[in-house]
User: What shape does this take?
Amino acid sequence: MATIVAEGTGQAILEEHHPQTFLRKYMFSTDHKIIAIQFLIYTLFFLMIGGFLAIMMRYQIAWPDQTLPGGGILPESMVASGYMLPEFYNSLVTMHGSIMVFLAIMPMLVGVYANYLIPLQIGADDMAFPRLNMMSFWLMVPAGLLTLASFFVVGGAASSGWTLYAPLSARPDLSGVELGQIYWLLALVLIGLSSILGSVNYITTVINMRAPGMTWFRMPLTVWALFITAILGLLAMPVLSAAGIMLLFDQTIGTTFFLPEGGGQPLLWQHLFWFFGHPEVYILILPAMGFTSEIIAAGSRKPVFGYHAMVWAIISIAFLGFVVWGHHMFQSGMNPMLGLSFTISTLLIAVPSAIKTFNWMGTMWRGNLHFHTAMLFAVGFVAMFAIGGLSGIFMASTPVDIYIHDTYFIVAHIHYVLFGGSLFALFGAIYYWFPKMFGRMMNEKLGKVHFWLTLIFFNLVFFPMHGVGMAGMMRRIYDSSGYAHLQGIQDTNALITFAALGLYASGFLFAFNFFWSMKKGKKAEANPWNATTLEWQTPSPPMHGNWAETPVVYHGPHEFSHPDVEDKDWLAQNERPDVVSPAGGGH
Amino acid sequence: MRSEFLKKVSVLVAAGAMAACGGGDSGGGDPGGDAGGGEAPAAAQVDPATVGTISGTINFAGDSPAPTAIDMSAEADCAAGYGPDGPMSNNVIAANGRLANVFVHLTGVSGGPAPSGSVQLDQENCRYMPHVLGVQVGQNIEITNSDDLLHNINASPTENRGFNISQPRAGITSNQSFPLAEVMVPVRCDVHGWMQAYIGVVDHPYFGVSGPDGSFTIPNVPAGTYTAEAWHEAYGAMSGSVTVTAGGTATLSFDYSSDMAGAHVPLGEPLVIRHGEHGIEVHRGAQD
Amino acid sequence: MAHAAAATAGRAHERGLDVYTQKVGMWIFLCSEVMFFAGLIGSYIVLRFGASDAWGEPGEVLNVPVTAVNTFILICSSVTMVKAFAAAQEGDQKSIKIYTLATAALGALFLGVQGYEYTELILHSEWQGSHGFTPQAGLYGATFFTMTGFHGFHVFLGVVFLSWASIRAFRGHWGPNNYQGLEVLGLYWHFVDLVWIILFTIVYLI
Amino acid sequence: MDWSLPLNLSTQGVVIDRLFWIIAVLTGVAFILVEAGIIWFSIKYRRRDGQKAHYTHGSKKAEIIWTAVPAVILAVLGIYSGGVWADIRGASALPQDALTFNVVAKQFEWNITYPGSDGRIDTADDFVVRNQFHFPANEPVIVRLESEDVIHSFFVPELRVKQDAVPGMTIPIWFEATGTGEYQIACAELCGLGHYSMDAQVVIHDRADFDAWSAGQAAGN
Assistant: This one.
């Protein structure tokens, strides 16, 4: 048994004794920490691209009768005579969603933080399969290149929405897009493979490589969340891959899986897509919930309120996540009687989300709250995620969904969950774990300015979208001026666009802080937040192999303000209270 | 169509690479070439002593079909551009024994003066102007929207790669071209189901389209004997022979009749109807 | 390998599944493979249920006897895989060589027969009045080639890995202290075999 | 800044709007409780020197309460929604013998087939009008939705009606307008480059006007 475990890790140790080339050390590294940083740079780049696409989109929505500033540098197939063309707008809509979900948020949550945190938080020296781990990053590179290239091929990038509803996505003669769609489907298959390899790695690592004493219910909530997320990815991504391959065949070799002309079923695509798509939503939120729990506990100097309930909430969300996909399809022509069962399962899944929200508040209750930037973002997450969760109740109610389905109300909801939720938590995570990753602190002043600007502009962008949706504005429309019922909200659309510019600009403040701090930030100590989990009990950044000696775990993950510990308000997982404060005695 | 996937992909990849490098797909359009207006500049390169002109009419026997009204009531801006009778279909215009919108081109010829200048295709009051037009391979087609509403231009050729682009407001111009000869390329607007146009793409400059009076002219044809083909969207295609002498004007006429209504007109592959001993014979050009 | 083992010999772990890591990894990977084939098979069921007239009777187009033989070949290869693993545990070097090579060969034979079957179907069969049963021949052809094709791709990957295992066998790599690689490969191979039995049943027999 | 539901003109819109506002009140209360709680805790328990956090791992009682209360509210909401949904879309909800129209969506048009003078669809006197949907108020009407090419979605905001039109399927929906006037059909499902301009005129008449209009159209064809 030992020989098997040693194969990857042993080599890693040997490498330390030899000078490594730049390529081996930073490009084709098998060290989980380097791979996490590669993913971080990659995803931040795509976050910037995805945001830029959104800004172009917003400009068009706010001022449909104006020419696009600087549009002249774009080819005539995107911007003609200065005006953005509807087909390019559709590509923007599609690729904004696709890039944000598959190339920014998901790999940032999982690729970056599952990679970085799982071995460090469970006391392992690396992943179970370091080379598979490297492969999972390098599969994302061609996927990203294909995605970027798809904008510049004849016909432009995919334009059938991120949900790729067939037949539009399968029929180039109807969408005008052929190569772009093929490129994106190929990218999707690569992303799926990368994600599956990653998941195999994370799950195996958590099962088999925990440090002595790290029992299941002593694992930090981040590890729990990432572990369950990996299971969701493992089971959901292959379904998308299978569906994507069938769509690719429809598009290229002339099969008719999703084309009614040949007996195929357009709704089959939707079932397959959402069977993946809804677990995907939880892939995008569960890790964020994990980070938030961790940061709020450390920021409040209190153990997580209801740790076990939090774990069971994660597990039940994951389980229910596989039986709610139909709630995306209430108006799709699916048998209406299925609607009721999906309504019930959807409302059920709101319960664990509510538990988590109240438990975070419970964690803050009677705490000693340190509002560093990471904590601000984590609390911001709870506040914004609550809005996203509550607005979800509207569309879970099937009759109300008749009206708000495919309107901006949905756009508001998804962004409160994915931006107000996932991205807020991710910003928090970046500020929180940056010192561990790079050995330097991020600038707190800039960080706080970034938080407040983000919070204000975020709400100015997405809260009014509820109103726009109530007024009945359809999603993905290029110009709303032709509709009588949308005349009253054009000023709101302009306001949203101004705020979106502010939101995007504040992202650059963050980017500056990030890269500046990487070089010039204040040197970080091993445990700058006085936190309890294992990653803080090794130097910043940790050495190759993570540990000078394997840590032994004695208790749960968030022992803050332990009454038996007198001179400090935290107790690391590898510290025993009777050793830290002998007078206090055992717990 | 789909079985030709590999061929299509290779064309696509090449086209994709072109667009990626060139940053646009304005085709062979020569930016300076617009000055001549696309009418006569070819003549400048031609020695008038060696060329002649083909001129002729498209005759039409039998009852002329009544023009059909287009219901544009849901697009009031367009409907307003027409007189009290309202908009009428312009796909079949046959009057006074003549047939308009027939595309005439020489076959078995290639080369000749290179295309210069652009050909105009306008969208005005929700109709294509002109309804039938001819271009040379690689020649720029300048598509303009004169209506302040959305039109899309959906070209669905079989030999060339199609395009489906849009022009959401007045004043927008797009440029397209076709790299392969194809008679005809159908063009439609999906927003306005009645809007249709046909583009004949040939790899020489010897073509013409019959006007409302049924006449057409093909200038600057080198002396020689040629086969010419006429194409009409409802009455099919037919061919005829013509001999051009230097400096002279050769006459070529085609005789259509109302009996030919409903002839199957495959697009993309030239369909040839000959008046043979046993009545009308139909051949698919591609199989000859 | 010896010094690498020594370097982490003292590494202790909290009790996991009591199974070595590669095996856990393969089990988990196979879970995702189950979902992949579930996606394809589920679509097949939905499409077939929705358009049952587009499907042929068993044996109408597909050559069931040849495929039955092919199924038997694949089952045999699972048996030889088990034998190879048992031989490795016992340290019977000769049997290790014979059985790994036999498994790889049977896998390759399966692919050969499948290739023959595809050629016959595409070039020499009739389906719904047109010549050749191809992926374009309606949903029946599309689902048939997609499912059996992806299964064949999995067999192909298995044969590649089995060839690698055979080379190692001839170098005396496998033995009582080093059988894990064969066991993990065996898991994959049995899974591929199992998927085939399901596919054979629902595609050829029903 | 007109952030409100548009004027409602259908019978089912009444219940949909009522349900919308019920949810709005429930979620509004939850929203205020959560956000106020977060702000209150953030101020009250902010860091102070010498302050030590209260050491607790949770409270079973509190957790049971905040699991049970949302669960009960959501269950009631789910059952109520299910009932309303069954009235609108249930198998037996489709009215018998109602005036029926075929609506065929295609890129980027709505083609409406009218029942003609006999009031029955699928008969010889049916006629088709492009992008104009006329129908009578104060009686249930059925729309049979089909699509020729891609998925579209039939959306009339004032009628609180939305249903995807899926190629290969015929999907019947019904509604009853409570007033007359001119509105628009919008397409709510991305259907290609003309999606945003895939609108059609909706004219709701009283019955006599509708019959007159229909007769006029039939004569014109």
Summary: Chain C touches chain A through 50 residues (CB under 8 Å). DSSP finds six helices and two strands in chain C. The longest strand of chain C covers residues 126-127.
